[in-house]
């Protein structure tokens, strides 16, 4: 079953966002990792990145701020391969580990 890894609701933007201090609407974001030693290690690193505000960013689109994924690559699908942010992608854990 698909479960959201991150769920954001209403919050206030931070310095560096399009309109610091203004509220924005969050959303549901799902990401997947393999259930193995490397996947668990990556999950811990992703948690630290989330705690430091690096997982998401705010982009302005048509005068409205929207929460989007930040620069850290996430697998948002079980299939479709690298081109569709899914598996299989044999290099993903190594690549995301380098970014983190």
UniProtKB/TrEMBL annotation:
InterPro entries, alphabetized: Deltex_C, Deltex_C_sf, Deltex_fam
Protein localization: Cytoplasm
Keyword entries, A-Z: Cytoplasm, Ligase, Metal-binding, Transferase, Zinc, Zinc-finger
Keyword rRNA-binding carried by entry: no
A Pfam cross-reference name: DTC
Top-level EC class as recorded in UniProt: transferase
Listed GO CC annotations: cytoplasm
Domain Deltex C-terminal: 7-97
Keyword match NADP: no
Single Gene Ontology MF annotation: ubiquitin protein ligase activity
Similarity section: Belongs to the Deltex family.
Name of the protein described by the UniProt record: E3 ubiquitin-protein ligase
Annotated source species: Eulacestoma nigropectus (wattled ploughbill)
Phylogenetic classification of the source organism: Eukaryota, Metazoa, Chordata, Craniata, Vertebrata
């Amino acid at each position: 079953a698909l479960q959201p890894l991150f769920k954001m609701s209403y919050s206030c933007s931070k310095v560096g966002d399009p309109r610091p201090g203004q509220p924005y609407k969050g959303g549901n974001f799902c990401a997947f990792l393999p259930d193995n030693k490397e996947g668990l290690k990556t999950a811990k690193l992703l948690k630290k990145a989330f705690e430091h505000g690096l997982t998401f960013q705010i982009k302005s689109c048509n005068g409205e701020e929207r929460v989007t994924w930040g620069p850290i690559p996430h697998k948002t699908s079980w299939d479709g391969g690298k081109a569709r942010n899914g598996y299989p992608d044999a290099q993903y854990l190594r690549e995301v580990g380098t970014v983190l």
